[in-house]
Request: fold
Amino acid sequence: MDEENKFNENSKNEQMEQFRSADNEDKAMTTNQGLKISEDEFSLKAGERGPSLIEDFHFREKMTHFDHERIPERVVHARGFAAHGEFELYESMKPYTKAKFLQNPKVKTPVFVRFSTVVGSRGSLDTPRDARGFATKFYTEEGNYDLVANNIPVFFIQDGIKFPDVVHAIKPEPDSEMPQASAAHDTFWDWVSQNQESANMIMWLMSDRAIPRSFRMMEGFGVHTFRLVNDEGKAHFVKFHWKPILGTHSLVWDEAQKLGGKDPDFIRRDLWDAINLGNHAEYELGVQIIEEKDEFAFDFDILDATKIWPEEDVPVRIIGKMTLNRNVDNFFAETEQVAFHPGNVVPGIDFTNDPLLQARLFSYTDTQLLRLGGPNFHELPINRPVCPFYNNQRDGFHRQTINKGKVSYHNNSLANNSPHTVNEAEGGYVHYQEKVEGRKVRARSESFKDHFSHATLFWNSMSESEKQHIVDAFRFELSKVKSKDIQQNVVDMFANVDVEMATSFAKTLNATPPSSQKPTVTKSSPALSQENTPKKATTRKVAVVIADGFHGGNVKEMVEALQGAGVQVAILSDKLGPIHSSDGKEIESMHTFLTDGSVAFDAVYIAGGANADKPFKENAKMFMKEAFTHFKPIAVTNEGKQWFDEQQLSDETGIISDVGETTGFASQFVDAIASHRFWKRNIS
Reply:
């Protein structure tokens, strides 16, 4: 290397050195201006349970920097998929709210819904273990209302100032940019073990809820406590729920991993195909309502976003139905450019002092300013309200409105003070007049300090199979963690939830099991178990596996029964094109062993074929073996029955066999498909 190149290299290294920070050195935390920080856990509030204050410069700096960290995809919820639809009310909610779209059951409100994973990048796969976004934009006559929900009713943190921290921890580690779309690494579990308020969310994340079978089979929750306000100014606390008509169902973990390789778009494809086939996704809107006088009537704080309102204590009242019936025309213009914001409300819907909600009211607009290039993202077609909008805002990037006239201020005489404000009676939005008082403090209410009781409630509410899946999820995630100290810290933390559960995964990790202790919470909530949601065969996908020489009568009867029950039938063979039956009929194969595994289907019917060669038989055996280990319904006839028996698999649960003589064979299989999984099956 000559002296000039060596000098240039040294100069470059010196330049880079000044930008490197020694993050692990013992330094006092400061703002970006160098001001030392005394508290980084709590945002500034008017009283411990009061609203957050806009003068909190530290929170604003921290959140603003976080919101602008990545371009152009969303920092979180980057991988999304969306559809258009409509919302129809069942009954008027006039006693509770003056929101017009919740008044008249005869009025249908257009909606746009974006589903998403949280952690992965836009190019990640559909099936990781992750929370899912469920954001709904109602295009109402009073303006857009956004219900920005998740498929899990609680969250990791209680105060929004910690949101950058949890996302930094769960995202790929900054030195290696690995792992993608996964929580199974050191930084996340280190954060969990040091932030015990996350316990309830982690229980949900380790459960089957984190690997949904379909967006169409996934619940949605508004997470936060909001307010409904009626014409008389009376307020009620409310939580919002979306309940899928098809019930709430999930993949199994091995299935989710394999689908990620075979079809990384599996869940978005499911929604796209279902809508195109006319199998519209349907959800009922439910509300939990608490009177203001009962705000402190529970053994938890109703403003705490890490807590649920148990449905047995506060029933969910079903008030309407949403139907997603139209796919987007352009992914970028609609799905990617749509901008949601929990602050997009209409008269009759208001906020509470939930400190996580308060932070989101700032963060969402700030994020969109970066993503969509300026303040006029509301003018993009997908974001425009259906009602007209007038104000004195002008110019900025991507302005589409051509404002005429010279007046762009309030008050004015040149345009008769137009646009002008209107009072509440004329539809003007008036914030609920909650009395607020307290000292400016960075603190958290004492009522937020219980971090484990609802996590234990969730555990107690699970079926035995769901509990086993949670333990297995902990085992998988923590086995990927390299630090033994972090593993032990997590074991010790979740012993506060359930000792037997923590002991089960401690053994896998070779960690020290926790000492035994009596459970402090014995209550359960049956509504939390997916086993207690509706089970239907409608729109399920079934692979019918056939080879040349199959029994035409059996297959014809089965296909007709499945289609009559609303099941989607996929004919699968070792080749595409016509497959010939023993009686001279033919049926078109659109799927092959090479293109589709059993993981792409909810159930399989192995009909066989007299002319099947050895490779076909082996593929069919592998197909049914995989479906068997994923607890799926399996129907077998003729050669299919013979191949099943050759594998010596248990035929006690979810296996419907027929040799052409049993009556009700097809209807039994339809009933088995509706059951979804057969967890008691012996797969050893």
Q: What stands out?
A: The domain at 454-531 is CATH 1.20.1370.20 (Hemocyanin, N-terminal domain). The mean pLDDT is 93. The two ends are 63 Å apart (CA to CA).
